Amino acid sequence: MRRNRPSRSAVKVAQAVAFLDGDPAISPLLPAGLAPLNERLLLTVGRLKPRHLRAMRRPWLRRFFLFVDSLGEPGQLLHVGIRKRLVDDEARAALAGGCRQVLVIGGGLDTLSLRLARDYPDRLFLELDHPASQQLKREALAGLMDGDGELPLNLRLLAVDLTSTSLGAALATVGEWDRSAPMFALAEGVLMYIDVEHVAALLRQLHDACGAGSRLLFSTIRSGADGRMLLGKRPRLAAAYLAVGGEPLRWTPRAEELAPLLASAGWRLVEERFDLRQRYLVPAGLAERPLGGVEIYSLAERA
């Protein structure tokens, strides 16, 4: 990430959600309340204009966007929406299972913390992100709250660069955080941008920040047996695009490396790779829709 502006990926993900909401078959699969709040947020910070929303509903332009989507990894746009549903479902399942606090690392422009904080006023929600992204997020949420009142009292936003500040130091500034209580932690689109030493350190710090029963949902981009990154049809071009945008990939593990790394930090791998097609598209009668698989979502529990 470039230090003087928010993550380009965060903006693109939010814009993809707005695009997917225009598909009558896909819109019902998005988390409840996500699309309208997401669109308002984008409009508030100027990353989307009303004319753009109208254009996203035009068939010819939608076909063009889907064509561009197919040039890299077909179904990546759809994957954005389906993974948002997975994150929402897993977070709510953890809260129903007794998790008392939620930690979101690198929330970008996502509204998960805001939506959950409203639905679970007795739980604590903490979101950590790079200062540039967090500043944009604060401005966006302040704009949204003009008509809705203040931010929920149980929601905290912290601007933290975890490459220079430890998670423990960041949590120490939040008096309500309970290191003995179970938490649900989310690291979505984060770990691939830091090197393996920082990944291992972050996993250990997460373990020390919570109690028994805690869960960690995270995403990775994998490497094949030959060490090459699995980035769709044009992996080198995709990696170069991210690097030019200030977001070079630094950690792309092989599948067999994941469980040992987690275990060394006190975590047990529960779900190595969620099958999003089987979980969401098949029941909706959309099994034949292209669904990207570059970013893989996994779940771990505190050992």
Outline the structure in words.
- The chain is of the alpha/beta class.
- The protein has a single domain (8-302), classed as Rossmann fold (3-Layer(aba) Sandwich), CATH 3.40.50.150.
- Helix content is 44%, strand content 14%.
- The model is unreliable at 1-6 (pLDDT under 50).
Please outline the helices and strands.
Blueprint lengths: L7 H13 L13 H11 L5 H7 L2 H13 L4 H21 L4 E5 L6 H8 L4 E6 L1 H15 L9 E5 L7 H5 L11 E5 L8 H13 L6 E7 L13 H10 L10 H10 L2 E5 L4 H6 L13 E8 L1
Parallel strand pairs: 1-2, 1-4, 2-3, 4-5
Antiparallel strand pairs: 5-7, 6-7
Helix pairs in contact: 1-2, 1-5, 2-7
CATH level-four homologous superfamily name: Vaccinia Virus protein VP39
Q: How many β-strands, per DSSP?
A: 7
Major sheet, described briefly? 7 strands, mixed
Please list the strands of the largest sheet in the order they lie side by side: 3-2-1-4-5-7-6
Distance between the termini: 32 Å
Helix coverage percent? 40-55%
Number of domains: 1
**What would you call the shape?**
globular
Classify the fold: give the CATH topology: Rossmann fold
Structural class: alpha/beta
CATH architecture: 3-Layer(aba) Sandwich
Per CATH, the class reads Alpha Beta
Average pLDDT level = 86
Rg is 19 Å
How many helices in DSSP terms?
Answer: 12
Q: Strand content of the residues, in percent? A: 5-15%
